[in-house]
TrEMBL record:
Region (G3): 73-76
SMART domains: AAA
A Pfam family this chain is assigned to: KH_2
Protein name: GTPase Era
Record membrane topology: Peripheral membrane protein
GO molecular function, one term: small ribosomal subunit rRNA binding
UniProt cross-references to PROSITE patterns, sorted A to Z: G_ERA (PS51713), KH_TYPE_2 (PS50823)
Keywords on record: Cell membrane, Cytoplasm, GTP-binding, Membrane, Nucleotide-binding, Ribosome biogenesis, RNA-binding, rRNA-binding
Gene Ontology BP annotations: ribosomal small subunit assembly
Ranges for region G5: 164-166
Length: 310
């Protein structure tokens, strides 16, 4: 996907061109996707307060004056309970093998605990530069933040620690500048007007799944996968027709998603269509269907079919 908007400059650095891939890692719900969207200056990754919201490694291309940073938003590392969870962890670990730097995000508004320590130990053996970002400081009182900073220092050795907020943008310029200092000299990997290498139909599917996460509760959000079967503009070019299927694991979940008189499915489609139209810059006709694929999260073949690949 391309963007004609000019990104941030690199703070007046010299003419040496720096570039590299940077993984954002952390427990679920630490704000990784929010940070990525803020830096990309556009919504690329979906956001929800539910675990396992991010299921793919999503790349945002940040173009600076003399640098290009490719941010990779990863699923949250966690103890897997099924084939999907195991695959998400593999995606994260494989991403970490081939990056120039790592942003480790910790939620400053929550207890810093064993889950954070698990990830800190996971990345401790990496030779690449690591920045610990204490995120969501907009939700923390100053005196409590000082305590959280001291606790975070116990997580390991980092090239820098930056308290910040991906929601408000506080200290994000400082994070960008530090990243540019740590990245090596390198080529321009993507054209300067590109903001992501994620196919549009993948982002469209994610926008539909985001609305399911927003509007449903209990086990339904975790049992949902979305597949876009067809996406094409009409001959007049003014409307894009999109046909997609929402997969669930139980007939009862299908009933919840469709809702009484089809109301829930209509609300999901309406909310997703608004996001998709902003993404594509054109009107959209969105046709959603719901199908049952029993226990798909336990079957690796279905996990891969729905696009959760390394």
């Amino acid at each position: 996907m391309e963007n004609g908007d000019k990104q941030l400059n690199n703070g007046g650095q010299n003419n040496t061109f720096r570039s590299g891939f940077v993984a954002i890692v952390g427990r679920p719900n630490t704000g990784k996707s929010t940070l990525l969207n803020f830096l990309a200056q556009r919504k690329i990754a979906i956001i929800s307060d539910k675990p396992q919201t991010t299921r793919n490694s999503i790349r945002a291309v940040l173009n600076f004056e003399n640098a290009q940073v490719i941010l990779i938003d990863t699923p949250g590392l966690h103890k897997p309970k099924d084939a999907l969870g195991a695959q998400l962890n593999r995606i994260v670990r494989n991403t970490l093998k081939d990056v120039e730097a790592v942003i480790f995000m910790v939620d400053a508004s929550q207890v810093i605990g064993t889950g954070d320590l698990f990830i800190a130990n996971e990345i401790s053996t990496l030779a690449t530069p690591k920045i610990l970002v204490l995120n969501k400081i907009d939700k923390v009182q100053p005196q409590d933040l000082e305590i959280q900073i001291e606790v975070a220092r116990q997580l390991g050795e980092f090239d820098d620690m930056i308290p910040a907020s991906g929601a408000t943008g506080e200290n994000i310029d400082k994070l960008s500048a530090r990243l540019l200092e740590l990245l090596p000299e390198g080529p321009q990997y993507y054209p300067p007007d590109m903001i992501t290498d994620q196919p549009e139909r993948v982002i469209v599917a994610e926008f539909v799944r985001e609305k399911v996460l927003e509007l449903t509760r209990e086990e339904v959000p975790y049992s949902v996968a979305v597949e876009v079967q067809e996406m094409k503009p009409r001959k007049d070019g003014e409307i894009v027709d999109i046909f997609a299927t929402i997969f669930v694991e139980r007939e009862s979940q299908k009933g919840i998603l469709i809702g009484k008189g089809g109301r829930m499915l209509k609300d999901i489609g309406s909310g997703a269509r608004a996001e998709i139209e902003q993404l594509l810059g054109s009107q959209v006709y969105l046709d959603l269907r719901v199908r049952v694929k029993k226990d798909w999260r336990k079957e690796e073949r279905y996990v891969r079919q729905f696009g959760y690949t390394e």
